[in-house]
Amino acid sequence: MSINNQDVFSSNTPDQDPEETREWLESLDAVARVHGPKRAREIMLNLLKRSHELQLNVPMVQTTDYINTIATADEPAFPGDEAIERTYRAWMRWNAAVLVHRAQRPGVSVGGHISTYASSASLYEVGFNHFFKGQDHVSGGDQIFIQGHASPGPYARAFLEGRLSEEQLNGFRQEKSHAGGGLSSYPHPRLMPDFWQFPTVSMGIGPINAIYQAQANRYLAGRNFKDTSEQHVWAFLGDGEMDEVESRGALQLAANDGLDNLTFVVNCNLQRLDGPVRGNGKIVQELESFFRGAGWNVIKVVWGREWDSLLEADTDGALVNLMNTTPDGDFQTYKTMDGGFIRENFFGRDPRTAKLVESMTDEQIWGLKRGGHDYRKIYAAYAAALAHKGQPTVILAKTIKGYGLGKAFEGRNATHQMKKLTLENLKSFRDD
What we know:
Blueprint: H1 3-8, H2 18-35, H3 37-53, H4 82-102, H5 115-130, E1 143-145, H6 152-161, H7 166-169, H8 205-222, E2 233-238, H9 245-248, H10 251-256, E3 262-268, H11 283-294, E4 297-301, H12 308-313, H13 318-325, H14 328-334, H15 339-345, H16 351-356, H17 362-366, H18 375-387, E5 393-398, H19 423-431
Parallel strand pairs: 1-2, 2-3, 3-5, 4-5
């Protein structure tokens, strides 16, 4: 044990009853030995929860296992039609990607980002379809900070709604040069006052302004200027963006003011401009620790429903241990390969986990999705965030950058910089 860990659990007073302490430790040893690490962990977490209720000043748990915060049994029923929503989402993913691709045509070549929205489409769609209140709502509506690089997604949605024309989509990033009217590259209400609520990008503008917007809403209600009790502030952010000073600098303010009218949704696709956010680390775990330390409620959406049966069968914690110890760089490598590679290089690292998937085909292993692409998991997280009182909530949703765009894009280091789809890319994307 390191010196730092010893300091965390040390006490300035001597053990008043070493024999009783030893009995407690032996009891924990027995539970872990007889019933397994999973049951021992459940008991410890319940004891820690009770210790905080009793105000015993026991050090908090900085990170939890690299699994979903909300247990499968606690997930509410998904109220939508997944097949219909998946169809519309596919259309929007296509239109968003092709919107950027067409902005690279000869004589234009203005850039854009294909992969960010591809990774976060499900996060937005669950919100738009089931949670976000529009401006015509009696409350005045929710306030939503859209991740800047994901702007093609809302444009693609607005096109299906009939709010934007094909001519306008062809004017992406050409506000001054396109005869039919252009679309701003990033959200900005001065450039498009009838479309965007708030400016986002440069990095960090969204998170800090979302905090102050939620605080302002509380101020308006507290001074009886306006009833903002049903308005919620949603900020959609990137995991790389969370390294910006502005992104983390006011977190404690939100916690100190108890801004439970605020939810951060961090799209953890594990990549920034030209590579992993934390190649040899785990950005989801790092952000969990940071937000917990700042006083936020943390909900992790790491794995899709396809993993549920495997985790249930993982009675000795071998799979969870693999999840805990695998760095982000490895997870990114897996998603550029195939199911056979994952079987050998992830599950194959422990004979117990290899046995868990021995009856699965390579295709089924490849189909084990990340939580940020699962409507049920996202819906459960959003519902829990709105139900939580007394703290702001951050949802850390693990996704794949370039999801659905094909092997040339998904999880690739260069995917953020890739603006064009080759003919083969388009065919693969179309078929998928």
